[in-house]
Structure formats: C-alpha cells, structure tokens
Design goal:
This protein has about 400 residues and is α/β, with parallel strands linked by helices. Helix content is about 25%, strand content about 15%. The protein has a domain of about 220 residues: 3-Layer(aba) Sandwich (Rossmann fold).
C-alpha cells in the first residue's frame, strides 16, 4: 500500500476497493466504530479526525481508507463524496465529543466540544445518507432536563431526518465492560422503521452471560517486575470464545502489554485492596489525610460503601468503564486483579473489545483507547442497521460479511 498527503492535508492510500454499504466515519478517532461496522459488513470509505495520533492509528488499521486530518468545521460534503468515490452514502456515523456532559469528570455546559454535533448535522444535511448513527456519553441525555438532547433531535428534524435514541450498555452486546452510552439513529427513508438491537448478554432468559474480565484478559501474561518488555508470549492458548475472537489474525506475541510500578502511596494502599474492592477497604490509618474525611457518615460510623478510587478489578465481572485515565489507579477502577499495577494498554484494549491485531500508533494511547467506541458494540449496532436498510422497499439487499 502506498500513501500520500494531498494539498488539503488528506491522506490518500491506494487499494480502497471493497464491497458493502458505504459508511463515512466522522470524529473517527482510533477507529473503534469503523472496526465494528466493518465487522458487521459495512465498508468504511472516509475517516475524519483532528488528532494526528488517532488518525495514524486509523490509517494503519484501515488501509486504503482516506483520512481527513483536521478541523471538521472545514470539511464539506463535496470533499466526502470525492474521497468516498460515490455520492450514494448509506451511513454517516460518529461520536462528536460532548465531554462537557460526561459523568466522568466536571460537567461544563458551555464546553465548545459540546457543539461539535452541529457539524455532524451539517454534514448529514450535505451528504444526505440513508441513515446516520451518532454515539455519545449518557450525561448529555439528562443534562438540563434533556434540553441538549432535544436540541439534537430538533436539528435533525429540521433537515428532514426522523430520529430515535436509546441508552445502551456495552456489556449487553458481548463487550467485557460496564460502559453506558447513548445512541441516536435517524433516516430520511420513509419505510425504514427505526429500532435498536436487542441485548445478547445479561441475566435475562435466553441471554448469554456477561463476558468477564478473566475471560477477556486471562490469556495475557502476568508481568511480575518486568514492566517494559515490548512483546511477550501469550500465557496460554485461547480460553473461550472471547479470547479466540481477540486473537484472530493477531501476531504470535502480545504487543502493547507494558506497565509501570505503582507509586509508593498507591503501592501501600494496594496491599489492603482485594478483588472487587476499592479505597474504603483499606484501614483508616493507612489512608492519606485527604481520604480520611470520606470515611464517616452522619452517625459517625465508617463508610463501607464502594468507591472506585484505587479499585481492584474483579476478574469474575466485566470491567468498569475504560476511560482515558486507565493508567492511573488513583483516578478510578484500574488496579489489575492479580498484580499491583494499573492495567496495560493491551488489557484496556481487550476490555474495549479491540482484537489483538489492532495496533495503536503515535502516542496518547490511553486517550485513543479510552475514547473509542467498543468494536463489538459497534458491530451489534451495524448488523441491526443492515437489517433496517435491507427491509426498506426497493433497496438492495445488504449482506453481512463473515
């Protein structure tokens, strides 16, 4: 494959052929959404993102797909048509950042990232795809009593798209992670009846059990005191269907499985924290001063409820949400279940359902991995959207790629 940058900073690669319904991925990041939609049978034709590291990762894992690396405000529908090689676009997908509404961190209503959705709407209007898919943090659903959600729905209605939305839990679709998100879908096709995929995993009748952390990462080797080896042998053959999926097409050695020792404070606390326990399981006398005031309730008794600070993951459950801070055990539930360290990049990617052949380039791996849409969640949505597209009258039949 050869690659060059054109006069507008767009990376063009040879070999962008293929078949399947066409998708353009706005705010593509490292490519988790495109990867899942590709697994479902869609053909990614264009990616758009301003982050050079994420764009490099996207290009590496989606060879032949041109990437517009820059400000989405400057992207036009005509550019997308030119790069896609067609004006018949089946789906525009993406997750415009709305971090000001995230439940992980401070909520800032006027954060400019909250309004990137307007460029998503603008490009949907210019391109007129049959459908759109927008993924985002669930905090935007309830912020200001739903006002932000209503703005989004009104914007799509104004350009002629019917919309629907729902909350999803990634674990319900085979992702080993309790990650809550919201989905907006929409269409301009009259006879497409909007709906969302039913869960495949959970506690209900007929559902598969949730994929646990042990099932997700149990074949990855422990590190001991060696935190820096770039490539390591797998600990064992794949154990169970998730590990088979993760290692399909992967190298014979584990990559990106590196760590670092805990700080002195974190190490002293970790000694008291068992699997499925957080900061409050440590004795009061070993806590840093700033945490001791968290320990009592109104009657003066010590609190024993859960906090996810310094939380050691339970191998028998899915992980908590993988955020951009997964290398910092003081920030959340990222303490390895068996070793006193944060989870590695590859373990975080496994929790996000990236297969092991997926390589992350550049730097800022935690941001790339933590911000991604889990591919298996995207795949489940993609398979369902293919059914909706196929069911519309007078449309071609879309078949999922094996």
């Amino acid at each position: 494959m050869t690659e060059a940058r054109d006069s507008k900073g767009i990376f063009m690669s040879e070999g962008s052929g293929g078949s399947g319904p066409v998708v353009i991925d706005l705010f593509c990041g490292a490519g988790g959404l495109s990867e899942g939609l590709r697994q479902a049978g869609f053909q990614p034709r264009v990616g758009v993102d301003f982050d050079k590291h994420a764009a490099a990762t996207y290009r590496h894992n989606h060879p032949g797909v041109p990437v517009i690396e820059g400000d989405v405000a400057k992207v036009t529908g005509e550019e997308l048509f030119r790069l896609a090689g067609t004006r018949d676009i089946d789906l525009i997908a993406g997750g415009p950042s709305c971090q000001g509404f995230s439940t992980h961190g401070k909520r800032i209503q006027d954060d400019p990232r909250n309004f990137l959705f307007k460029h998503f709407v603008r490009l949907v209007d210019e391109v007129r795809p049959k459908m759109f898919l927008m993924e985002n943090v669930r905090g935007m659903l309830t912020y200001a009593k739903g006002e932000f959600r209503r703005q989004i729905e009104a914007a799509f209605t104004e350009i002629g798209y019917r919309t629907d939305f729902t909350q999803v839990l990634a674990a319900d679709y085979g992702v080993p992670q309790m990650r809550h998100r919201i989905l907006f879908i929409g269409t301009r096709i009259d006879d497409i009846e909007l709906s969302f995929p039913a869960p495949t995993h959970g506690d209900g009748e007929g559902l598969k059990p949730y994929v646990t952390l042990a099932e997700a990462i149990g074949d990855l080797p422990l590190m001991g005191k060696d935190y820096t080896t770039a490539k390591r042998e797998y600990a064992c053959a794949p154990q169970g269907p998730y590990q088979v999926y993760a290692r399909s097409g992967a190298p014979t050695e584990v990559t990106m499985h590196v760590g670092r020792p805990l700080s002195k404070q974190a190490s002293s606390l970790a000694a008291y924290i068992g699997q499925g326990q957080g900061l409050r399981s440590a004795p009061v006398e070993v806590l840093p001063e700033r945490f001791k005031k968290m320990r009592t309730i109104a009657n003066g008794q010590l609190r024993r409820d859960c906090t996810t600070l310094y939380y050691r993951l339970d191998p028998n459950k899915p992980s908590y949400t993988i955020t951009c801070n997964y290398k910092n055990v003081a920030s959340g539930p990222f303490l390895h279940p068996y070793e006193d360290r944060a989870i590695s990049h590859r373990e975080a990617a496994r929790c996000q359902s990236f297969p092991d052949h997926y390589q992350f380039l550049g730097s800022s791996f935690p941001r790339q991995i933590g911000n991604a849409v889990p591919p298996l969640l995207a795949k489940a949505i993609g398979v369902h959207l293919l059914k909706l597209l196929s069911a519309s009258s007078g449309k071609q039949s879309y078949k999922r790629v094996a």
